């Protein structure tokens, strides 16, 4: 699209006012835009309906990514029917088209003089021989030594050496991963498909090509990684001396490129000027050769200085000799022919740093282009953008002027300021209005990148200029005025989706980070949420799940505060996909101290010794109000990783349930024990329950509902009978008138055990028969005797446990439990008699220190 000649079809409608689909929509990438709505009363001034947002679907690894510039990109697991097949390699015609696109465009204007490659034939032949043997080589030379021109000739010589031809790549601001993807797309036909890391390595491993890689910025391990991933490729790498050298294990040949001889420098100047040098000019060129160390770039710029000098002299001579425009000059206007004829040669300092002097003799459009290039960190905008940026319809010719005087040099498929020119122009004052120029460039690129007719590939071609504008403007971003938008945020907002759709993901990440910072400084929370969402999607595509979770949670939090429903739903879907890939619950992150490996298998199990009952002086079992955290330490790191984070955040709830379960088991054990022991007694308390039982007085027998020990000789079970405490009667004495009980808690003579239970249920000894006291009727009024104990029915935590009497030394504490209800607890005072309980499991008499028998 020409920014200056915008046809009606580029606005989304044709001359008839009908809908005009963009190139993406015509290819089936989306639905056509709606027809413009017009007011029937004012058909000529009706407002058009805004064009629908351009969305692109692409496959990356196992995901189907829908780039949505409105609410944020959507990501899901790619359905089997949507997965593309194995990409096919390009044909010879396709490779030629890719190679043509990798070269910089030809500048408009008259053709530049073609300069031969002097004193480089030996290096050229050596490089070709090494590449023909399949060896990789690095060409090292300073900036301005002609390294790029030499690599271009080598690429032409190696066109038929490899099955996949020659691939030209630019390493300027590119990482090893970026170069691997660039190599993949240069050989394969894979539109809208970005393979994951494993697939990428599989594809590039089968590429056999001569790769011409210029302006690389890394060496060492990064270069080794690139070479190891492409064993069938032969690389010729161009680098400056400040780039780290290859490792010793890489077996990369080194070829150094030095400066030219003095004769070679003079030859370049003469070819640039188009004539032989005078003796004065030859001496001047010799001084320049010594100062510039023979760099060819300096001689080309020096030849441009002499050519401009000749043009000034030619203009003056034309007026003097032929009278050109003589009639237009005033009669009394003196001609400065003599002054022009005596234009001196540039000084040695001006020849060593010729950029300001050369720029002063260029057109205004060319000087304005240089100011934009300085503002963008050396990036020269594409010639199609210069008329809109400069404000001159013929400003595209400025690129030809700059290239003719060697102020710009090709870098990949675009132009940058030549080596040293940026510093020279900054010193000459070309960086005084850097903020204003960067703002103008940002406004233009924001409009252009968001235009529906501009393809993502074209936006990716201008990625460096767009990112340079963002780098200048982001630190100075301020909140915009009411009703306005931040230009920096708008540029990042429109360029980032295009970078994503164009598969230039390193530029996508840089644009997102710049946009997030600009949105934060501008106070635009909604835009900040969008950038964090996109960063989370990008991290998810790269397998960085922790970073993706963080970015997505940040975006969801911001959008929830703004009540943005669609964006929140999109973020939660992506977060659910992260949880599915990591095996964690959505929204649960890794928190220190919450990891309980294997807790899913251990939390429902009981302790090895069973669930203990509450004992005096010991803490009670866990309950729902007092959860206990049980930490299971894994014995191996693999087991900890296998069950990591599955129980995070849910540990407290599960442990509370476990504590409630333990309490339930304890209660059930108590009930079972009560039932087992009460079945041995014919006069069970459940059969003698009165209407209004009292806590201080038993039902009818004054026993508080406790089991009455019996010695049933008529049955096979002749277990030992044990004594128990009785309640004080109405008169304040223990027992009844028929069965007095001494208050000392000693056994009755008839209650001593006389035998043990045999295996068959019979008695091994003669039991002592004792009369069972009959239940006596007592008043339901509380006792009023002063001799009744004043202790509460259940022991308090501060009470001291009652030590068992000497007569209970035979009992075993392994089956002892305590009653917790008020109707089954005995007084806890020191005067309460100690009793024994009959064990239904082992038949061994046991004692209870709490004075209550179960």
Structure in words:
With 854 residues, the protein is α/β, with parallel strands linked by helices. Among the domains are: 95-258, 3-Layer(aba) Sandwich (Rossmann fold), CATH 3.40.50.300; 260-352, no CATH class; 354-374 and 389-430; 599-669, no CATH class. It is 38% helix and 7% strand. The protein contains 28 helices and 15 strands. The strands form 5 sheets. The chain has a 5-stranded parallel β-sheet, sandwiched between helices. Strands 3-2-1-8 form a 4-stranded mixed β-sheet. A hairpin with a 6-residue loop joins β2 and β3 (74-77). The longest helix is centred in the C-terminal third of the chain and has 28 residues, at 651-678. The two termini are 94 Å apart. The model is unreliable at 1-49, 318-340, 588-651, 678-682 and 684-854 (pLDDT under 50).
Content of β-strand: 5-15%
Envelope shape? globular
| Overall pLDDT metric | 73
Q: Could you please say which CATH topology of one domain applies here?
A: Rossmann fold
Number of strands: 15
Alpha carbon gap, first and last residue: 94 Å
CATH superfamily of one domain: P-loop containing nucleotide triphosphate hydrolases
Major β-sheet strand ordering = 6-9-10-5-11
CATH class of one domain: Alpha Beta
Helix-strand makeup class: alpha/beta
CATH architecture of one domain: 3-Layer(aba) Sandwich
The profile of the biggest β sheet is:
5 strands, parallel
Low-confidence stretches: 1-49, 318-340, 588-651, 678-682, 684-854
Number of helices: 28
| Amount of helix | 25-40%
């Amino acid at each position: 699209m020409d920014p200056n000649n915008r046809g009606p079809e580029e606005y989304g409608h044709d001359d008839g006012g009908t809908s005009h689909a963009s190139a993406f929509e015509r290819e089936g990438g989306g639905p056509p835009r709606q027809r413009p709505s017009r007011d029937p009363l004012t058909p000529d001034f009706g407002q058009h309906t805004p064009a629908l947002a351009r969305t692109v679907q692409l496959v990356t690894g196992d995901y189907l990514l829908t780039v949505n510039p409105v609410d944020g990109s959507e990501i899901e697991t790619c359905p089997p029917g949507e997965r593309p097949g194995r990409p096919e390699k390009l044909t010879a015609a396709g490779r030629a088209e890719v190679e043509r696109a990798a070269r910089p465009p030809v500048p408009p204007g008259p053709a530049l003089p073609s300069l031969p490659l002097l004193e480089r034939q030996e290096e050229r032949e050596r490089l070709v021989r090494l590449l023909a043997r399949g060896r990789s080589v690095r060409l090292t030379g300073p900036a301005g030594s002609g390294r790029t021109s030499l690599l271009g000739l080598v690429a032409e010589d190696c066109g038929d050496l490899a099955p996949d031809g020659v691939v030209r790549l630019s390493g300027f601001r590119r990482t090893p991963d970026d170069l691997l993807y660039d190599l993949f797309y240069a050989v394969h036909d894979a539109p809208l498909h970005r393979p994951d890391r494993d697939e990428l390595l599989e594809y590039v491993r089968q590429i056999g090509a001569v790769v011409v890689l210029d302006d690389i910025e890394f060496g060492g391990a990064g270069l080794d990684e690139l070479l190891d991933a492409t064993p069938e490729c032969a690389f010729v790498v161009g680098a400056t001396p400040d780039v780290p050298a290859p490792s010793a294990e890489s077996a990369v040949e080194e070829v150094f490129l030095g400066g030219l001889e003095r004769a070679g420098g003079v030859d370049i100047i003469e070819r640039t000027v188009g004539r032989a040098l005078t003796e004065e000019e030859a001496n001047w060129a010799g001084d320049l050769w010594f100062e510039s160390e023979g760099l060819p770039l300096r001689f080309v710029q020096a030849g441009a200085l002499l050519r401009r000098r000749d043009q000034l002299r030619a203009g003056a001579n034309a007026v003097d000799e032929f009278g050109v425009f003589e009639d237009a000059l005033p009669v009394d206007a003196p001609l400065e022919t003599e002054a022009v004829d005596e234009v001196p040669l540039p000084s040695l300092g001006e020849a060593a740093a010729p950029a300001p002097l050369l720029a002063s003799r260029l057109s205004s459009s060319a000087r304005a282009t240089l100011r934009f290039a300085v503002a963008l960190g050396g990036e020269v905008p594409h010639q199609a953008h210069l008329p809109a940026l400069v404000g001159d319809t013929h400003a595209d010719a400025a690129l030809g002027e700059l290239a003719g005087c060697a102020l710009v040099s090709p870098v990949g498929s675009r132009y940058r300021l030549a080596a040293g020119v940026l510093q020279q122009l900054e010193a000459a004052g070309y960086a005084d209005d850097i903020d204003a120029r960067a703002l103008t460039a940002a406004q233009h690129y924001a409009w252009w990148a968001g235009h529906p007719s501009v393809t993502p590939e074209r936006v990716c071609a201008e990625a460096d200029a767009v990112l340079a504008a963002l780098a200048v403007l982001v630190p100075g971003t301020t909140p915009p005025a009411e009703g306005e938008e931040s230009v920096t945020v708008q540029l990042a907002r429109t360029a980032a989706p295009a970078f994503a759709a164009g598969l230039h993901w390193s530029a996508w990440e840089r644009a997102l980070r710049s946009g997030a910072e600009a949105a934060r400084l501008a106070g635009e929370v909604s835009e900040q949420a969008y950038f964090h969402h996109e960063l989370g999607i990008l991290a998810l595509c790269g397998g960085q799940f922790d970073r993706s979770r963080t970015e997505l949670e940040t975006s969801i939090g911001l959008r929830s505060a703004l009540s943005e429903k669609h964006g929140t739903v999109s973020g939660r879907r992506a977060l659910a996909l992260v949880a599915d890939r990591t095996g964690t619950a959505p929204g649960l992150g890794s928190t220190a101290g919450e990891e309980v490996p294997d807790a899913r298998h251990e939390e429902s199990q009981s302790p090895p010794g069973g669930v203990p009952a509450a004992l005096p002086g010991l803490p009670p079992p866990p309950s729902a109000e007092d959860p206990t955290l049980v930490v299971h330490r894994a014995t191996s790191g693999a087991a900890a990783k296998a069950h990591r984070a599955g129980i995070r955040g849910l540990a407290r709830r599960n442990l509370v349930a476990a504590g409630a379960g333990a309490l339930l088991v304890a209660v059930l054990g108590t009930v079972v024990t009560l039932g087992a022991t009460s079945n041995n007694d014919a006069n069970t308390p459940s059969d003698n329950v009165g209407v209004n039982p009292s806590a201080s007085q038993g039902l009818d027998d004054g026993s508080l509902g406790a089991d009455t020990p019996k010695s049933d000789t008529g049955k096979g079970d002749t277990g030992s009978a044990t004594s128990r405490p009785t309640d004080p009667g109405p008169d304040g004495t223990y027992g009844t008138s028929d069965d007095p009980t001494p208050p000392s808690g000693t056994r009755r003579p008839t209650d001593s055990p006389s035998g043990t239970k045999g295996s068959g249920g019979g008695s091994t000894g003669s039991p002592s028969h004792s009369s069972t006291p009959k239940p006596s009727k007592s008043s339901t009024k509380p006792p009023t005797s002063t001799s009744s104990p004043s202790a509460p029915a259940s022991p308090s935590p501060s009470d001291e446990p009652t030590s068992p009497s000497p007569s209970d030394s035979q009992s075993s504490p392994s089956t002892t439990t305590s009653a917790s209800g008020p109707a089954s607890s005995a007084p806890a005072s020191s005067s309460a008699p100690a009793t024994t309980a009959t064990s239904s499991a082992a038949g061994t008499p046991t004692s209870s220190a709490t004075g209550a028998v179960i």
